[in-house]
Amino acid sequence: MAEIIAGAAMSHVPAIGVAIDQGNTGDDYWKPLFDGFEKSRQWIADLKPDVVIVVYNDHATAFSLELIPTFALGCAAEYQIADEGWGARPVPAVKGQPELAWHIAQSVILDEFDLTIVNDMEVDHGLTVPLSLMFGQPDAWPCPVVPLCVNVVQYPPPTGNRCYNLGKAIRKAVQSLDKDLRVVIFGTGGMSHQLQAERAGLINAEFDNQFLDDLANNPKKAAAIPHVEYLREAGSEGIELVMWHVMRGALDDDAVEIHRHYHVPASNTAVGHIIFENKR
Ligand code: DHB
Ligand code: FE
Hints:
Structural class: alpha/beta
Distance between the termini: 14 Å
Strand order of the largest sheet: 6-3-7-2-8-1-10-9
Number of domains: 1
Radius of gyration: 17 Å
Order of helices and strands: EHHHEEEEHEHEHEHHHHEE
Number of helices: 10
Number of strands: 10
Strand content: 15-25%
Bound molecules: 3,4-dihydroxybenzoic acid, fe (iii) ion
Helix content: 25-40%
CATH class: Alpha Beta
């Protein structure tokens, strides 16, 4: 039987990808950030998952205002790299896991979550930066990826509760696949940041740390945070945090926190990172 064994959340700031690609991770500015991921890289190298589900958001790379799926599940065999801003990162193409992805699509849609099925999609920093933070700079990514792309760019994004419950449906889907697969799920984006208008540069460490505590110890409370609170407390792009609830919902309620890292700033963003393992 397939099984979700662990989950991790991490920010996806594009400048982190540039620092990795240009060999600047040891600079004074970047070193404290990357030091917090050393344990994580060792952890996942030891764990050797068969597949990673990456919950992330697209930044007008694969989608635009012409087409705004709330939840888009990648069912393809491969995803090419692309990006806005700095352009496509020099990282390997991402291999998919169509069997697991189609199984999740079937199970979750029959559970009344109306996902969009995507067979051709480019992936941007929202997905590649988390892979780089966790897997470093390999010639090929060590395992296939099932991308789940969430709209957090154009109002209205899904609620935290909807994301949390989708995580539960994904967990049920994975557990019903008759194949030995050890699955890890990443929730990406956040933490507090605002890239636009009068409050550009906003960081709220108090909110972020409370969010990490609640995600760990009271995930239903964290999932109930309304959009307006993210906007007020974590800035307009802080809404990316709803994606972390998909990851948390896919884990056991009593999953154990095994690592945490919080660092300000990376570019305009507060970087948060947390890892959970299911007990069994
Ligand atoms: C930044 C952060 C993001 O999440 C993003 O998608 C783009 C830029 C930043 O902090 O610069
Ligand atoms: Fe982003």
